[in-house]
Amino acid sequence: MSAPPMPTGPARSSKQRKPPPRRPPPKPPKPSRSARHPAVTIGSGIFTFLLFVFVGVGLAGWYGQRAFTEPGPLTTEKVVNIPRGAGVRDMAEILEREGVVQSWVLFVAGQKIARPDASLKAGEYVFKPGQSVASVIDTIASGKVVLHQVTIPEGLTSQQVVKRLMDNDLLTGTPAVPQEGTLLPETYRIHRGMTRDAVLQEMADAQKKLLATIWAKRAPDVPLKSPQELVTLASIVEKETGQADERPKVAAVFVNRLTKKMRLQSDPTIIYGIVGGRGSLGRPISRTDIATATAYNTYAIDGLPPGPICNPGKDALMAAANPPKTKDLFFVADGTGGHAFAETLADHNKNVARWRAIEQGAAPAQSGQPPAAPAVTPPAATPPAASGR
């Protein structure tokens, strides 16, 4: 048996070699930025944009709030008129033009954002120095407009009252002339743009309220049947004297005459019967005027005329409702702006003679007044005139 063939290669060591240590597999390369998922890129962009928007809005809000509440540019108190029909933009531009706010944009934005429920009202407003936009908006929303005064003197006819209101350019509208004697002469508070009808209504309401109070407290023996008759008598008293302390005395004369069924014979009733609500005759009363019968001429009619001859004031109404107890039946001018009163015709004639002497001694050019009407001798069937004019 033959021996196995010997290996032809190099001889192996008796010790076997260890295999070299394995190297860990290489880590996969990190993905580059360019390899990000598109959704991540979009999301990141949106977040960045929103962050900038949030910061921008916050800064704008902070700045807007600061500008909205910081002192304004006005250095002195100023009255500004916001006309009727003006919108928020119109108001803002007016306020900027008048120097009340720095920018109309800030006013509009502030009203829309901070005061969306504010109802801005037209009218005249007073703005203080340094008033902020927020305060300006609150002022206009409050409706506390500037108030003015209009004074209606006692003794004007309703037509004359309307004319006085028409001459006031703060008021608006063309009203109808109210019924004579339904307005209370007084000082009233008005605001620019207020209608004349509203003023007349306020005057009528005031007269109605006052008349009800005075009528309820009238003297029980006053020969007047209704509040309307009280106003009529008071209107005659009002036109006969401009002195407050004489109104009760004049009222007493006419009440005494009414009680005795004597004609009132009041000169102002002659004038009203001729010119009506115009109020002024423009010349002295003549004998023809006295003799000409009208519905209001108390030289020609018995008792009171059919209605008032003017709008009497509170004092005249009170005097007519509660006249003092006297026996006077006559009065005539005394040359001092007042009147001389008398119980008898003899005393009255003396007072008239005294007044005529004063008239003759004072030329019209000196007094600045037209000459008084000549003395009138009433018909035999007619009682002597109360005023002797």
From TrEMBL:
<keyword id="KW-0812">Transmembrane</keyword>
<keyword id="KW-1003">Cell membrane</keyword>
<keyword id="KW-0456">Lyase</keyword>
<protein>
    <recommendedName>
        <fullName>Endolytic murein transglycosylase</fullName>
        <ecNumber>4.2.2.29</ecNumber>
    </recommendedName>
</protein>
<feature type="compositionally biased region" description="Low complexity">
    <location>
        <begin position="360"/>
        <end position="370"/>
    </location>
</feature>
<feature type="region of interest" description="Disordered">
    <location>
        <begin position="1"/>
        <end position="37"/>
    </location>
</feature>
<dbReference type="InterPro" id="IPR003770">
    <property type="entry name" value="MLTG-like"/>
</dbReference>
<dbReference type="Pfam" id="PF02618">
    <property type="entry name" value="YceG"/>
</dbReference>
<keyword id="KW-0997">Cell inner membrane</keyword>
<feature type="compositionally biased region" description="Basic residues">
    <location>
        <begin position="14"/>
        <end position="25"/>
    </location>
</feature>
<comment type="function">
    <text>Functions as a peptidoglycan terminase that cleaves nascent peptidoglycan strands endolytically to terminate their elongation.</text>
</comment>
<feature type="transmembrane region" description="Helical">
    <location>
        <begin position="39"/>
        <end position="63"/>
    </location>
</feature>
<comment type="similarity">
    <text>Belongs to the transglycosylase MltG family.</text>
</comment>
<feature type="region of interest" description="Disordered">
    <location>
        <begin position="359"/>
        <end position="389"/>
    </location>
</feature>
<keyword id="KW-1133">Transmembrane helix</keyword>
<feature type="compositionally biased region" description="Pro residues">
    <location>
        <begin position="371"/>
        <end position="382"/>
    </location>
</feature>
<keyword id="KW-0472">Membrane</keyword>
<feature type="site" description="Important for catalytic activity">
    <location>
        <position position="240"/>
    </location>
</feature>
<keyword id="KW-0961">Cell wall biogenesis/degradation</keyword>
